Amino acid sequence: MDGTLFETDTLLLSVHERIFTTLREEGLYEGPNPPVEKLLGCLGMLLEDIWKIVMPGSSDAARERADVLMLQYELEGLAAGEGTLYPHVETTLRELKARGRKLFVASNGLEAYVKGVAEYRGIAGLFDGLYSAGEYKTASKVELVARLLEDHNIKTAWMIGDRSSDVEAGKNNGLQVVGCAYAVYGKQEELRGADVLIRDFRELLEL
């Protein structure tokens, strides 16, 4: 979802500010806000790992509260119309669906967030499944994608994503991997091992 379909910084900039304002007010965090670039650079990771990087040395209580606040403020932002899909995502997904392709999301995010983005941005109905680590309690995206493939008896598929976890999940499940080089959250070397790189979501139609 993040960095592949959804341009997360269009939502997260305001969410980031609100999270740390609230944590500071509640006495769970001191000092200036961490750079939002640090949070954006962690997208695609499991939440428990994100906060250890963004707030090193923070308490368990602070990290747990940050989880709650992040989801709350993300859903409030989405409901208020914040956050956009990457260019051509919706039209491309609709065309793929019209061609009879089965479409799925596999995300390390929370269930309510992943489903919330899809619902609020009007693309939920295009997917045969929205899989998240938050819903299935998986320890890695490799495990999440394996579950998805098994649930739907899928023998061949393409994994499309922007992070090393996507490449790993695809390769470890025997899939072709398309790396989204247009995403800005990860580093280009994260896509090493992908079978092909795209710089525009519409390229999927040709592939």
Distance between the termini: 20 Å
- Uncertain residue ranges: none
Mean pLDDT figure: 94
CATH A-level architecture of the largest domain: 3-Layer(aba) Sandwich
Structural summary, described in words:
This is HAD hydrolase-like protein. It comes from Paenibacillus spongiae. InterPro entries: HAD-like_hydrolase_sf, HAD-like_sf, HAD_2, HAD_sf, PGP-like_dom2. It holds the Pfam family HAD_2. There is one protein chain. The chain is mainly alpha-helical and 207 residues long. It folds into two domains: 8-79, no CATH class; 85-206, Rossmann fold. Helices cover 47% and strands 12% of the residues. The protein is built from ten helices and seven strands. The chain is globular and about 50 Å long. 37% of the residues are buried. The model has no long low-confidence stretch (mean pLDDT 94).
Task: Describe the secondary structure blueprint for this structure.
Elements: E1 6-7, H1 9-25, H2 36-40, H3 47-54, H4 60-79, E2 84-85, H5 89-98, E3 104-107, H6 111-120, E4 129-132, H7 133-136, H8 141-151, E5 158-161, H9 164-172, E6 176-180, E7 196-198, H10 203-206
Parallel strand pairs: 3-4, 5-6, 6-7
Antiparallel strand pairs: 1-2
Helix pairs in contact: 1-4, 4-6, 8-9
